[in-house]
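Issue 218. Parser rejects a valid record. Input:
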Amino acid sequence: MQTHVIEELYLLVATAFRLESKAFDYELWMDQIHSMIMITRELAQKYGADEEIVIIATLLHHFSALKGFAGKAESSLTPTEGADALLSRLGYPEDRIQRVKNCFGDKSVKKDHTEASVEEILMVDAKAFAHIQALASLFHDIYENMGDGLDEGLTRIRGKLQRDWRNVSAQGKEVYKEKYEKIVNAIR
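Output the parser choked on:
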């Protein structure tokens, strides 16, 4: 595993987020990214996926949410192009860059998960599970950042979790079914 790439990306993402956010938002983000990294590690073992690929994709997923993705000079790049530029600069092998880019967004994963790699499927599942695991971040986003009222916010949170769940693979549903049901029932 090329831990130097993961370490450099983690520092880059954490620093960029710290510069763009309030202290409270930074703590919530750290909770969310730590949850997602733990989830991707757990699922990589269960799914037989390449852990390095999914951790890098996780970091880049969070980095793409920041303004000026991949730095000011590359702010016009798409997230996939930004990932390519960043990973190339870090000396990451081209064949592995392509695998990261393939799972960077869930748009390429069809609803029935055909023609998707195990890493792409894992990333769709991990994003959904991160909302369940780091629920405080989702609540903060809905109530603080979007300014929703109580009922409107709960409706939006339930809707988000249900949309995420519809895209989760059958294998993922087996892993997280009990936790998902408890969370959804608790916010009714």
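Fixed in the parser; the record now loads. The CA atoms of residues 129 and 176 lie 7 Å apart.
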